[in-house]
Specification:
Organism: Flavobacterium gawalongense
Protein name: ATP-binding protein
Shape: globular
GO molecular function: ATP binding
Order of helices and strands: HEHEHHEHEHEHHHHHEHHEEHHEEEHEEE
Distance between the termini: 22 Å
InterPro entries: AAA_14, DUF4143, P-loop_NTPase
Number of helices: 16
Largest sheet: 6 strands, mixed
Keywords: ATP-binding, Nucleotide-binding
Helix content: 40-55%
Structural class: alpha/beta
Length: about 375
């Protein structure tokens, strides 16, 4: 079953506005499938192939005589010399949508784009499926614990691969291989411990010093590994809102994983009994919802920014979506029942931010939606 990706319309539109389109995202998020289905008339060149990389390096003239226009270059970051040639070609031809690039290592891809193709490329991110995409094919379970455990990578749905098998292979085949290409890792065992420790901190404030100490590595090494995981789209850091409203605020970011299936695998969570009633259920649910907002933002090609806010007294808002200059305040609760106490964080923050607040939303684990005076109560399942 082919699930239509939300980002398709934006890519189609901007292909007529820019000579180069770039699609980035984690391994196995569906980039190649999407591009080959969307543009079947384009030549497809995978630069994972050593032979094709050698062809480009040894005989660039011959390479571009064969692949001169309407080409998809997959894993383009593996051939850094490609980008300067593309710059010359698109500047001469003035053809829109002439080349499409894809890549799964954001740091190298963006570095090459910035150096050679700035102003010539429209950049998109494709992450694992979001709720809207899965619901379009009736593939999203209404059981939020089951959804968290299963995860959202396309192969799990398209090829019906059991999650435990998919994520075990994914970590060994892609995550560990890609990370070693970005940073120097002497002992893979230590990195695996680091990755598991990151998972245990999902939904929490990042304390880099504590993380490094527990793993037995230096703080610069921990920072380097964390950056590599960010650039491989395994995890991301949510920064605190810079406005303090005359309050002492927390300045450390919070750590989240893009996919809760991968997160649960790293935490060795295999079934619902390991989640229900456990203290970390709230962090897992919060991770899923924050990641969902981020995924939908990218897939709908929006430019909103996301923050959280917490002061030194413990007042907190889980997520703030900045729409232009206005703030959409979002609380995330893993309960299925609504009580007045759940709104206290957003009430406190809204009193400080005043006219800067555009909307208030409580996302919870139940299935009913409520339009209350104080805020909209939205089921996780209907998040959009």
């Amino acid at each position: 079953m082919v699930v239509k990706r939300e980002i398709v319309n934006a890519i189609r539109f901007y292909r007529t506005k820019y000579p180069v389109i770039a699609l980035t995202g984690p391994r196995q998020s569906g980039k190649t499938t999407l591009l080959r289905e969307l543009f079947p008339e384009y030549q497809y060149i995978s630069l994972e192939s050593p032979d094709l990389r050698a062809f480009l390096e040894d005989d660039p003239k011959g390479f571009f005589e064969k692949y001169s226009q309407y080409c998809i270059f997959d894993e383009a970051q593996r051939a850094p010399q490609l980008f300067s040639y593309l710059q010359t070609i698109v500047d001469d031809s003035k053809i829109m949508g002439q080349f499409i690039l894809s890549g799964s290592q954001n740091f190298h891809l963006m570095k090459n784009i910035t150096q050679s193709l700035a102003g010539r490329v429209a950049i998109f991110k494709l992450l694992p499926f979001d709720f809207t995409e899965l619901k379009s094919e009736n593939l999203l379970s209404q059981d939020y614990v089951a959804a968290m455990l299963k995860g959202f990578y396309p192969a799990i749905f398209d090829r019906n691969i059991p999650s435990k098998n998919f994520y075990g292979n994914y970590i060994q085949t892609y995550v560990e291989r890609d990370i070693t290409e970005l940073v120097n890792i002497r002992e893979m065992r230590t990195f695996r411990i680091f990755l598991s420790l990151c998972a245990s901190r999902a939904g929490q404030l990042l304390n880099l010093n504590s993380l490094a100490k527990e793993c037995g590595i230096t703080q610069p090494t921990a920072k380097s590994w964390l950056s590599a995981l960010e650039n491989s789209y395994i995890l991301f850091l949510l920064q605190p809102l810079h406005d303090n409203f005359d309050k002492r605020v927390i300045k450390s970011p919070k750590l989240y994983f893009y996919d809760t299936g991968l997160l649960c695998h790293l935490l060795k969570i295999k079934d619902a009994n390991q989640i229900i009633g456990k203290s970390y259920k709230g962090n897992l649910f919060e991770n899923m919802i924050v990641a969902e907002y981020v995924k939908q933002n990218y897939h709908q090609n929006l430019m909103d920014e996301f923050w959280f806010w917490r002061d030194s007294a413990g007042h907190e808002v889980d997520l703030i979506r900045q729409d232009d200059e206005l703030l959409n305040v979002i609380e995330i609760k893993s309960t299925t029942t609504i009580s007045q106490d759940l709104f206290k964080g957003m009430i406190y923050f809204s009193a400080l931010a005043k006219e800067n607040v555009k909307s208030k939303t409580l996302v919870y684990a139940g299935l009913d939606n409520q339009k209350r005076t104080i805020a909209n109560v939205v089921s996780w399942y209907d998040l959009k």
